[in-house]
Design goal:
heterodimer; A: about 475 residues; Aspartate Aminotransferase, domain 1; seven-stranded mixed beta sheet; 12 strands; globular; B: Rossmann fold; five-stranded parallel beta sheet; about 30% helix
Chain lengths: ~475, ~160
């Protein structure tokens, strides 16, 4: 290429850069715009407007030097879809953008994402302080898998700052909590817990699945790592299993406590991830080592479906929280329901935290206790015709389950109580149907519960 | 407190990246595991002429190494700094002396006096930004690995 030609090309690029920068300068794009556009540019080769599904395991290298540069992490390049994929990358960047993080790494499930986030910063002999009010699957992972890796756990009442403070040990490497607890509906005081964690030079990891970045962005309140089960509201339609880890990029992994992140890595020819990549050090290690070695890669097709979900995230969440509030208010006024844990209710003890962290709404997953204990809860579920009885949340369709016999089945009675689950507790995930229909179905379900209770009372009378 | 925002303007960053051909890296390490080496390697891959400045080495990345900016045999468009912040005023004076186009200070290389010396001498200053990350953000492939480039555009092919 001649000098004149190259000069003209640079000028042309610069004029486009100036045009784009002028458009971007001083303008902050809104959430609704970013949920549609972040992470994607129209495909340079085809002009495709939708995100293409790059259904490929691997990528042809330009030459041996390029291949080496990609594997050495000297150049951003695609090598193998267990580690990165262009469709998955759009999903990762979009979630990172919406959460306000430095970047994200996607996984085959939320549970895999959570394991990877922890494995990247833990080593045997370490200690984690965790909220006791968690999803049962997370409790199992921490209690059994982490202990198998010789990592100690301390469970704390998430509402008690002193409990977090006093649980810290010299070998503590992470704090863990859920923005909105599953299924107890407790709201984490993220700013306070983050300050306690940072005072001890420990990162705070927050599972933001139930809030989504539309309702709460934990990084803005001091969280260092945010985890999602994308299976839930991000996907939003109950089609795909997946997870994602977002990191703020601001935690000082070189503070002397995280040799596993800061020291030369034996698993990557002595690379010092934090020193070399700075802001992106943890994320690079999470991808290049943990994802590489755990292998729980998100499929491009599932990433595509999650991107479809993200395009309407704000619209769905507005509807989810409106319906959830209507259903919770109905339950609160019903004689056969008690202990409605929706933190968006005016009477909730989490009202101040909800106003601070969840001003647009307190999500759409909560629980209540059905009259009649275990039998009452099961009778209610048996009677419903619109709510789907299944083990998931965050679908556009309304879902119902009895945690004590399903999602939280492996927990002891004490652990159930800590998680806010009683024998008659029923968990709802309120969908986007007509609120009146959801309330109608619950109402007719309660009528069946009352009738069954009446039958039982009659039997008792008859047999005495 | 240095107002870093004025040294991180997206348009200025792009003008420097698109306009530059020759980049002198002050404090470039010969160790291929150091951040400066990653950056130097990356810039070479993207067709910039990289000139190492390091008094302890004779050659890095296959390029002749010079002890200081004042020893360089050719004009440079960008002086990229991987030194402690305290060294910045001296480097800025040298950058002015050789009529460099821009002084690009990596993450954490923050020194208000250095920035003022360079600006007063007509040298554009970019500070507390990584030249590799910014190149990857606007021109390269940062979006391939799930990093938040913060770019929103529906223009086909972006800037590539």
């Amino acid at each position: 290429m001649g000098e004149v030609e190259k000069g003209a090309r640079v000028t042309d690029k610069l004029s486009r850069a100036e045009k784009l920068s002028a458009a971007e300068a001083g303008h902050a794009f809104g959430f609704e715009t970013r949920q549609l556009h972040a992470g994607q540019r129209p495909d340079p080769n085809t002009g495709a407007r939708a995100v293409p599904i790059f259904q490929t395991t691997s990528y042809v290298f330009e030459d041996p030097e390029s291949a080496a540069a990609y594997f050495n992490l000297q150049e951003y390049g695609n090598t193998y879809s267990r580690i990165m994929n262009p469709t998955v990358a759009v999903f990762e960047e979009r979630v990172a953008n919406l959460e306000g993080g430095a970047g994200a790494v996607a996984f085959a499930s939320g549970i895999a994402a959570q394991a990877a986030a922890l494995f990247t910063l833990l080593q045997p002999g370490d200690h984690v302080v965790s909220s006791a009010a968690l999803y049962g699957g997370t409790v199992n992972q921490f209690k059994h898998l982490l202990r198998k890796m010789n990592v100690e756990l301390t469970w704390v009442d998430p509402d008690d700052p002193d409990a977090w403070r006093h649980a810290v040990r010299p070998n503590t490497k992470a704090f863990f909590g859920e923005t909105i607890g599953n299924p107890g509906g407790n709201v984490l005081d993220i700013e306070t817990v983050a300050a306690i964690a940072h005072d001890r030079e420990v990162p705070l990891i927050v599972d933001n699945t139930f809030a989504t970045p539309y309702l709460c962005r934990p990084i803005e309140w001091g969280a260092d790592i945010v985890i999602h089960s994308a299976t839930k509201f991000i996907g939003g339609h109950g089609t795909s299993i997946g997870g994602v880890v977002v990191e703020a990029g601001t935690f000082n992994w070189s503070n002397g406590r995280f040799a596993v992140v800061a020291d030369p890595s034996p698993a990557y020819h002595g690379l010092q991830f934090h020193e070399t990549f700075g802001t992106y050090g943890y994320l690079m290690k999470l991808r290049a080592e943990t994802l590489r070695d755990l292998g729980a890669a998100l499929s491009p097709f599932n990433a595509f479906l999650f991107l479809q979900g993200l395009e309407t995230l704000s619209l769905r969440m507005e509807r989810h929280v409106d319906n959830a509030l209507a259903v919770a208010a109905f339950l609160e006024s019903h004689d056969l329901a008690s202990n409605v844990t929706y933190p968006g209710l005016p009477a909730s003890k989490y009202r101040p935290l909800t106003e601070k962290y969840l001003p647009r709404g307190a999500g759409a997953v909560f629980s209540f206790d059905c009259s009649g204990g275990r039998a009452g809860g099961q009778d209610l579920i048996r009677s419903l015709t619109l709510w789907s009885h299944l083990a998931n949340v965050g679908d556009a369709k309304s879902l119902i389950i009895h945690p004590a016999s399903t999602t939280h089945r492996q927990l002891s009675d004490a652990e159930l109580r800590a998680a806010g689950v009683g024998p008659g507790t029923v968990r709802l995930s309120v969908g986007t149907e007509s609120a009146a229909d959801l309330i109608w179905d619950l109402d007719q379900g309660f009528a069946s519960v009352a009738a069954a209770a009446g039958d039982t009372a009659d039997e008792k009378v008859a047999t005495t | 407190m240095t107002d870093l925002g004025r040294y991180q303007d997206p348009l200025t960053i792009q003008q420097v990246l698109y306009g530059a051909r020759t980049i002198a890296i002050v404090g470039l390490s010969a160790s291929e595991l150091r951040a400066s080496y990653f950056v130097g390697y990356y810039l070479k891959r993207h067709d910039y002429h990289v000139i190492p400045v390091n008094p302890r080495e004779s050659e890095i990345l296959g390029e002749t190494c010079y002890p200081s900016l004042l020893d360089l045999p050719v004009p440079v468009d960008v002086v990229n700094v991987f030194r402690s912040p305290d060294a910045l005023p001296g480097i800025a004076r040298d950058a002015v002396a050789i009529h460099a186009g821009a002084l690009w200070c990596q993450f954490g290389v923050i020194n208000a006096e250095g920035a003022r010396i360079a600006e007063d001498g007509g040298v554009t200053v970019i500070m507390d930004r990584c030249i590799k990350v910014e190149h990857a953000r606007y021109i390269g492939r940062m979006h391939w690995l799930g990093f938040n480039t913060q770019r929103i555009t529906s223009v086909r092919a972006g800037l590539q």
